[in-house]
């Protein structure tokens, strides 16, 4: 249950962000140039940090935060392949490349967030601070 509680809001927010992004680019295709890897990567990194930190903060091991980040990272992968690649017609290869980038950034963020939360110690991680 702690896993689902820790993932609920990051997943809801990530889905809302992805749908808003897809809708914006469907309505205004020129926005594609403004939503580059630097901007999207920064946003996805924050989601990964949130996931890793939240799960370790709920008493789960850091490895759970990374695994959860990998699972949640499938959302931008699917959005890029299906939404941007196929629906918006950018091509399967471009969608797969962008999706893998998004997946990896969420995983990297979850690793950093989980490691940061675990290194802080305290009751939630099972270690008292020195």
Keywords:
mainly alpha; 78% helix; 0% strand
Write a compact overview of the structure shown:
The chain has 130 residues and is mostly helical. 78% of the residues lie in helices and 0% in strands.
* Alpha-beta content class: mainly alpha
H/E element sequence = HHHHH
The description of the largest β-sheet is:
none
Quaternary organization: single chain
Number of H- or I-type helical stretches:
5
Identify the overall geometry: elongated
What is the count of β-strands? 0
Q: What is the terminal-to-terminal distance?
A: 30 Å
Low-confidence stretches: none
Please state the CA-atom Rg, rounded to the nearest Å. Answer: 16 Å
Averaged pLDDT: 89
Q: What is the percent of helical residues?
A: over 70%
Task: Describe, in plain words, how this protein is organized in 3D.
With 130 residues, this protein is mainly alpha-helical. The protein is built from five helices and no strands. The chain starts with a helix and ends in a 10-residue tail after the last helix. The mean pLDDT is 89.
């Amino acid at each position: 249950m702690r896993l689902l509680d820790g993932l609920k809001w990051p997943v809801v927010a990530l889905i809302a962000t992805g749908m808003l992004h897809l809708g914006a680019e469907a309505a205004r295709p020129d926005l594609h140039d403004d939503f580059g890897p630097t901007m999207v990567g920064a946003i996805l990194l924050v989601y990964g940090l949130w996931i890793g930190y939240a799960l370790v903060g709920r008493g789960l091991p850091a490895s759970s935060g990374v695994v959860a980040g990998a699972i949640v990272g499938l959302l931008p992968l699917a959005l890029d392949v299906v939404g941007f690649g196929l629906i918006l017609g950018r091509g399967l290869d471009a969608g797969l490349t962008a999706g893998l980038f998004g997946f990896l950034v969420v995983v990297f963020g979850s690793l950093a967030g989980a490691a940061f939360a675990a290194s802080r110690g305290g009751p939630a991680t099972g270690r008292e601070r020195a």
